[in-house]
Structures are given as structure tokens and as C-alpha cells.
Amino acid sequence: MSTALVYALTGTALFVLGVAGLILQPHLLRKILAFNIMGSGIFLVLVGLAQRAGTPDPVPQAMVLTGIVVAIAATALALALARQLLDMCGEMRLPEEKTGKDRLDV
Amino acid sequence: MRTLLNVTVLFLASALGLVLGWLILDLPVAAVHLPEQVTALLEMSGVVHPVTAVLLNFRGYDTLLEIAVLLLALLGILALPRHVSDHQHRSPSANPVLQTLTRVLAPLMLLVAGYVLWAGAHRPGGAFQAGAVLAGAGVLLHLAGLLPAWATPGRTLRAGLAVGLLVFIAVAVALMAQGTLLQYPLGWAGALILMIEASLTLSLGLILAGFYLVLTDSRTRV
Is A106 among the domain residues? Predict the structure, then answer.
């Protein structure tokens, strides 16, 4: 197995961790973090798979560079929205999560 | 109930991971060999570094849309209502050591940003990295208590935030007469890319720093 595939497989592992965290963690900050971990996993898959042939491919690298910056923007907006929710409702949780009382234990 | 949910999600997630891993191992080699195409056309792109060539020439519209998305995200943050209170904004830290160090470091970071921007033409570097360094300098200045958070950006700041997108759009519109979006005329590519990158660096630095400075501002005022 080449190094490139190790990167890509690590990327899938990160992506899956992020998916599980996004579903299981009720706290919005943790959801945002999980979402970022998903994104990092995807970037790792893109960069890893692109150098399978041995030479690094500049096209996915440029895409990932763009993606990282957009991910920062999305995270900042998500944080602002989450804080807005905190200011309005006093809780960092989505309203759907509040109905199931047994899901609230963090 | 909670345990059942946990177990189900973890089981499904590991199944997803296994399927994805298997797919990656099984993936055929790409039919189109992009690195060769990039290398073949690199001479026409106006820069020597392949990643910069892809970012600002071959797939320039990606970058155009990216700076638009960034500006949109900052506008979204600015559009959210703030909680105003009587508390004056306090700088997070007035540590003299940090302040002195930051006063020394901030000009150096400007220098590094300029170098990274210039280096983008022929080695790893470019507008994004330079913008990130600029933003880092802004955040550091704020943390040292030397730069206040942004309540509402003034006229100059707004112009700085928008200049990257505006220059990029202006170049794209000026080149539209040729028929293709963002196809630089031969010989002009290098200069146009440098102009776009320089304005992008300024805007990216301000926008990225803005994410932090705008968010800190409304928090400390609550």
C-alpha cells in the first residue's frame, strides 16, 4: 500500500468520525467541530488520492486550498449563527434535540 | 434509548467507513491525466508554480467564486443583530510582554505576507497563504490589545474587504470580449495574476481577520 492510499484511508476514517460526531453530539459547537473534521477528511482523501500515481496533482491541491478557506468562512458563519441561537434561546442545542429529553445527557 | 441510538449510529458509521475504504482501494486510475495537462500548458499560464497556475488561471472562476463566498459569509455575520449593552469593550489582554512582542512581530508578518504573495508565482505560496498570514497578524494584534474589535466596518474597511472581488470581477468583465471567461491574453497573464493576487491578499486578510474581530466584538458586548 502506497503512502498516498494511507492518507486517503485516514481521510475516510476522519470523515466517518465526523459523521458520527455530527449525529451523536447534541451541542452545536461539537456539531460544528465534527463538521470540520468531516471536511478535513475529505481534503485528505482528495490530496491523498491525487498522488496515487506518484506525482502530486496540482488540480486537487488547488481545489483543497480553495476548500480550506471556504470551510473557515462556513465555520465562522456557523459559529455566529450558533451564538445567535444561544442569545435567543439560552441553549447551544437545536430545538429538535430538546424534545427528546433522554437525549440531553451530554 | 440513548445507548441504542449510539450503537446504531456507530455501527452504520463504521459500515460507511468500510465501504468508503474499500471503494478507495478499488478505485481505477483516472482516465484523464491532469498533471500532464497542467505541465504542458504551464508556460502559457503566466506563472511557474502549477498550483498557482490552476488557482488563478486554469480554474480562475473557482477562486472568483471563493472570494465571493468569503465576502458573503462575512456579510452574513455582520447582518446578524448584536446585543448591545453598556459594557465598554475591553481589550482581552494588556500584557506588556505580549504587546511589545506583537509590535515587533506585526511588521515582520506583513513582510512575510508580501514575500509569500510574491513567491506564489514560482514556488508554494500565493494569495491565500499571504492572506492567512495577514489575518493572523490582525488576530494577534487584537489579542495583545492593540487593535480594537470591529463593531461596524467603516468606509475604508468596506472598500478593503471588497477590493479583491471587485478587481477580480473587473478583470473577468474586461476579458469577456474575448468570448471565454477569465482567459488571459498571452503575455499579460503574469501581470494580471499578480494584480488579482495582490488585491485578493488584502481582501482575504481583512475578511479572515474580520471573522474573528467581528465575532469577538459582539461577544464581549453582551
Answer: no
SS3 label, residue B39: helix
**Domain containing residue A70:** 3-98
Domain assignment present for residue A10? The answer is: yes
Min distance A33 CA to chain B CA atoms (Å) = 17
In the predicted model, is pLDDT for residue B104 greater than 70? yes
Q: For B129-153, what is the mean pLDDT?
A: 89
Look at B73 and A63 and tell me if their CB atoms are within 8 Å. no
Is residue B127 over pLDDT 80? yes
8 A C-beta contact, residue B37 and residue B135: no
- Is the separation of the CB atoms in B52 and B121 below 8 Å? yes
Q: What CATH number should be reported for the domain holding residue A45?
A: 1.10.287.3510
* pLDDT higher than 80, residue B1: no
CA–CA gap between residue B98 and residue B140 (Å, rounded): 9
Residue A53 belongs to a domain: yes
Q: Specify if A105 maps to a domain.
A: no
The closest CB to that of A87, out of B2, B9, B222, belongs to: B222
A68 Cβ contact list (under 8 Å, min separation 6): A43, B128
